[in-house]
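We were asked to recover a plausible sequence for a given structure. The inputs and outputs are reproduced exactly as logged, with field labels preserved.

PROBLEM: sequence recovery
POSITIONS: 287
GIVEN STRUCTURE:
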């Protein structure tokens, strides 16, 4: 009880997850709730024009960062198939703004994702980590197991920031409302997937920091999961990544940690909401 009181007093939020990434619940203070901000959030989430404009920014940021990750990898690999995928993605990214509805935009995102994961499979050196496609709930291979766990950590990192800034994590602009699903976290994590999770997963597997014996294979479900020890390794590396300081925000004349930049992006979203101007929001782009 004293420990819980101490956490709540200091405003420290705790998320409870299973080793497979299933969400059990959260311990959080209600001191950050901002009802006026949430009312505006709900109003704008019903504004189709605003949602589409903001959604294009989320998807364009995501796809641009995915493409940059592939370009970086292909500097050494010089793989013709990778080069072709990178060129194809560039053409599609240029046309994202032509999408007329959220449904059309999500269709473009799905096609870009298929291209991207096809390319990612060619970047992984050890072929025992090869995979056919993105799988989840449960992941069907080691690579998908690693990124699924990473996306879960990223999801609840963003959840904590949203709650701290007085937003409702369940009312989104791009992703559809689903019962018990914090859809706004899914919106905001799009631009971060390649930067914070995919690149780290590739590095951990290529450098054998996570090995094949670090995975549990569930014959009944066909699922593949990181074991307890490997989860600890990944959490440690993910935390180091969040603390890494970079200069990706050109409007700020100093380096910030990735964790601080996530907070900066949430505040940028709030400004866009309160100003009724989706153009205020600019996704983080790696260089």
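RECOVERED SEQUENCE:
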């Amino acid at each position: 009880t004293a420990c819980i009181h101490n956490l709540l007093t200091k405003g420290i939020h705790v998320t409870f997850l299973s080793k497979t990434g299933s969400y059990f619940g959260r311990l959080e203070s209600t001191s950050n709730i901002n009802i006026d901000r949430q009312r505006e959030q709900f109003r704008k989430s019903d504004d189709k024009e605003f949602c589409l404009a903001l959604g294009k920014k989320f998807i364009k940021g995501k796809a641009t960062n995915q493409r940059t990750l592939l370009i970086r990898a292909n500097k050494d690999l010089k793989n013709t198939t990778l080069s072709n995928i990178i060129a194809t993605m560039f053409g599609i990214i240029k046309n994202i703004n032509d999408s007329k509805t959220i449904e059309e935009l999500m269709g473009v995102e799905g096609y870009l994702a298929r291209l991207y994961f096809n390319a990612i499979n060619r970047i992984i050196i050890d072929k025992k980590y090869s995979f056919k496609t993105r799988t989840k709930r449960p992941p069907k291979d080691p690579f998908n197991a690693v990124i699924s766990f990473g996306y879960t950590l990223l999801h609840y990192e963003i959840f904590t920031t949203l709650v701290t800034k007085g937003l409702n994590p369940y009312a989104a602009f791009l992703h559809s409302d689903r019962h018990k699903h914090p859809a706004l976290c899914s919106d905001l994590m799009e631009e971060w997937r390649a930067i914070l999770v995919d690149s780290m997963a590739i590095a951990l597997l290529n450098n054998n920091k996570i090995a094949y014996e670090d995975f549990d294979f569930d014959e009944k479900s066909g699922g593949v999961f990181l074991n307890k020890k490997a989860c600890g390794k990944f959490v440690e590396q993910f935390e180091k990544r969040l603390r890494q300081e970079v200069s990706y925000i050109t409007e700020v004349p100093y380096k910030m940690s990735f964790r601080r930049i996530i907070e900066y992006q949430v505040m940028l979203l709030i400004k866009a909401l309160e100003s009724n101007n989706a153009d205020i929001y600019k996704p983080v782009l790696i260089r």
